[in-house]
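Our consortium's second objective concerns turning raw sequence data into structural hypotheses that experimental partners can test. To show how far this objective has progressed, the report includes one record in full. It was chosen at random from the queue rather than selected for favorable results. The single chain below, 330 residues long, was entered without modification.
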Amino acid sequence: FLRMFQKSFLAIFLLFSLLLSSCSTDVHNFAEYKDITIVYGMLEAGADTTFVKITKAFLGPGNALLIARIPDSSNYPGKLEVKLQGKVGSNNLAPITLDTITIHNKLAGDSVFYFPSQKVYYTRAALNPNATYTLTIERPGGQVKSTTNMVNNFAILQPTNRINFAATAPSLIKWTSAVNGKRYEAKMVFHYEELVSGNPDTLKKTLVWNLGTRRSETLAGGENMEISYLGEEFYNRLGGQLSNQLNVRRFAGPVDVIIACAGDELSTYIDVNSPNNSVVQERPQYTNIENGTGIFSSRRTVVRTYRLSVQSEVKLVEDYNWGFEIKPVR
């Protein structure tokens, strides 16, 4: 019995070894070609031009950075039929057909993709802020589709008059949330001028101060929202930006308070793709593109311009040796 078992075991082992030796060890990294459409589009009422970027995914042997520079790798040939269909309540608006334009002379550092030119779809048609828009793309292999609500307008309530950076206590920027708005990013842009001795040209410069992000509780609009800032931080940031150049005269200008609001889909897309501090690195992929991937959403940007308070400008001139002067009234 033992001898029969040994012979059977040897026969099975030889057969298993033969099967292993006949298996291919080649690994195929590339499956058959599949047309995957990638869409990035942001609608904004009041914008003079609406752009939608439509490309296709690619994968091939060799250096992907070199393949990316071949137009056929990521661009569809010719012009696809791309339309925006708006709807307010039960009423359909006139459809908008997008045209194509090629953006040339991209800087080499911007991206290795679509360099030095890229094709985008655009329209200069005015968008209805109260509409729901459906994007349709007719491409070989089927229709790509997505729908978004428009983010409505909203108002910055505070400051009411001038920006005061001389206050020692935190100050507030207040606004009301927009209908269909979810994520709000606030920043201030301080404008100033420089006049260097021996140079007749006045240089216009800016300091951009990102204040942070807030989210509304709902999409219904009308929520009271706010973000705080400390005036001393303004002077610290400005001092870190200014050069130590001698014989330079500077003049303070206005301050723009800018609040950019993202729609619900865009807010989710940003959250999913934001840096992850967790040890679990795998993230779910988010897209609202039917028969494709990417993001199609809306946004709204509100800008309100203020003058510096008298105390803020006096502090800038008298407390810091940066060459700021009170600009003479003409």
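The partners drew two points from this record. Confidence is low (pLDDT under 50) at residues 1-23. The CA atoms of residues 190 and 220 lie 32 Å apart. Both points have been shared with the crystallography group to help prioritize constructs.
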